[in-house]
Design brief:
Distance between the termini: 30 Å
Helix content: over 70%
Largest sheet: none
Number of strands: 0
Number of domains: 1
Structural class: mainly alpha
Shape: globular
Oligomer: single chain
């Protein structure tokens, strides 16, 4: 029961954070990237020296989101991904942020 309540509260917090990001950033790529970065840090943590690579990864994934929504997803969408980005790609977080972006329109 406690987990259900925690998940519901986290979902509400995420919706509020997304609303705040939409007011701060106008481009979907930026909104996605910031939300991904926030969730990644909350769930996995990141050392200060890793935050730059996490931000790069989030920006690339934000572009993937935009390209997918515009039916333009291609190799070009991920061409900037490098080996050091791999540890910052979390498919569950990507899927979660993607779904939140779709449902918040």
């Amino acid at each position: 029961m406690g987990r259900i309540v925690n998940d519901a509260m986290r979902g509400d917090q995420d919706r509020q954070a997304l609303k705040k990001l939409k007011a701060q950033y106008k481009q979907p790529q930026q909104i996605f990237a910031k939300q991904y970065q926030i969730q990644f840090e909350r769930e996995n943590g990141a050392y200060p020296e890793e935050k730059n690579v996490l931000e790069q990864t989030a920006n690339i994934l934000g572009q993937v989101y935009v390209d997918a929504r515009q039916n333009k997803l291609s190799e070009k969408s991920i061409k900037n991904l490098k080996a050091e980005h791999n540890e910052f790609i979390d498919y569950e977080i990507f899927k979660d942020v993607y779904q939140k972006m779709l449902s918040s329109k």
